[in-house]
Design brief:
Strand content: 15-25%
Shape: globular
Structural class: alpha/beta
Helix content: 40-55%
Mean pLDDT: 75
Largest sheet: 7 strands, mixed
CATH topology of the largest domain: Rossmann fold
Oligomer: single chain
Pfam family, one: Ras
Number of helices: 10
CATH class of the largest domain: Alpha Beta
Cofactor: Mg(2+)
Organism: Anopheles darlingi
Number of strands: 9
Order of helices and strands: EHEEEHEHHEHEHHHHHEE
GO molecular function, one term: metal ion binding
Keywords: GTP-binding, Lipoprotein, Magnesium, Metal-binding, Nucleotide-binding, Palmitate, Prenylation
Low-confidence stretches: 32-42, 224-231, 255-262
Length: about 260
């Protein structure tokens, strides 16, 4: 019997109590035959399957209670985790200030595991106590991706898990397995089609908005196909310049057929 997924990842949800970790879990589709369960030890897990670049990635998401007496649980489960979601409540500054404790605990028992910072309850932004910029700076300092989400509006939840899965698979070297079969976005397909028929020097003459031209130039310079065109054009320019320099030298020194004319 064929597997229902291509990759299986274990993800750990950590954060203070009442930041809405169960809200996040409840907003995900259940991708397993067993129902989500809660054990007496203070942990609960749920499985869900996401589609990532044409591959089915099954996530086993574990939620730990945010109370201090469950720190031993984090020590136990973080060892086998391939991804960490750190959750705080944007309407509760104390939950954000407590992230250092959770981050230290995770780094001690699961060093180098990819992490994503998630600010929950974006639908209550009018009660915000943690600025988005502050969270982004914190995530950048600790090399984490950063999302603000809302289970109520189903906003950015799946995107945050997809980004964590991508980071985890990349870390384990799995991404290269299907990179050649990666499903391209419509934007990338359009850029590839345009760059195939032109080069970086003629993009400015296209009847397109300036922002699109800027993106195309960036894509063209990083695309190997267009980069070859640039290199060929550069070689042609260098060749012409060399010929002009040689002609100028001959005229200046009256050189003809390898002899100097006095």
């Amino acid at each position: 019997m064929a597997k229902e997924y291509d990759y299986l990842l274990k993800v750990l949800l950590v954060g203070d109590s009442d930041v809405g970790k169960q809200e996040i879990l409840s907003g995900l589709d259940d991708g397993s035959t067993e129902s989500p369960f809660c054990s007496g030890s203070g942990t609960a897990h749920k499985t869900t399957t996401i589609l990532l670049d044409g591959k089915r990635v099954k996530l086993q998401i574990w939620d730990t209670s945010g109370q201090g007496r469950f720190c031993t649980i984090i020590r136990s489960y973080s060892r086998g985790a391939q991804g960490i979601i750190l959750v705080y409540d944007i309407t509760n500054k104390w939950s954000f200030d407590g992230l250092n404790r959770w981050l230290k605990e995770v780094e001690e028992h699961a060093p180098g595991v990819p992490k994503v910072l998630v600010g929950n309850r974006l639908h209550l932004a009018f009660k915000r106590q943690v600025a988005a910029k502050q969270a982004e700076l914190y995530a950048s300092r600790n090399k984490m991706a950063c999302f603000e989400i809302s289970p109520l509006c189903d906003f950015n939840i799946r995107e945050s898990f997809c980004e964590l899965a991508r980071m985890a698979l990349h870390r384990n070297g799995m991404e290269r397995i299907w990179r050649s079969n990666k499903v391209l976005s419509l934007q990338e397909l359009c850029c590839r089609s345009i760059c195939r028929r032109t080069n970086v020097y003629t993009i400015d003459s296209l009847p397109l908005p300036p922002s699109v031209k800027l993106y195309l130039r960036s894509y063209a310079l990083t695309s190997s196909q267009c980069l070859n065109t640039v290199l060929n054009n550069s070689a042609s320019i260098a060749k012409n310049l060399k010929c002009k320099t040689a002609t100028s030298y001959h005229l200046k020194h009256n050189v003809k057929n390898g002899c100097i004319i006095s």
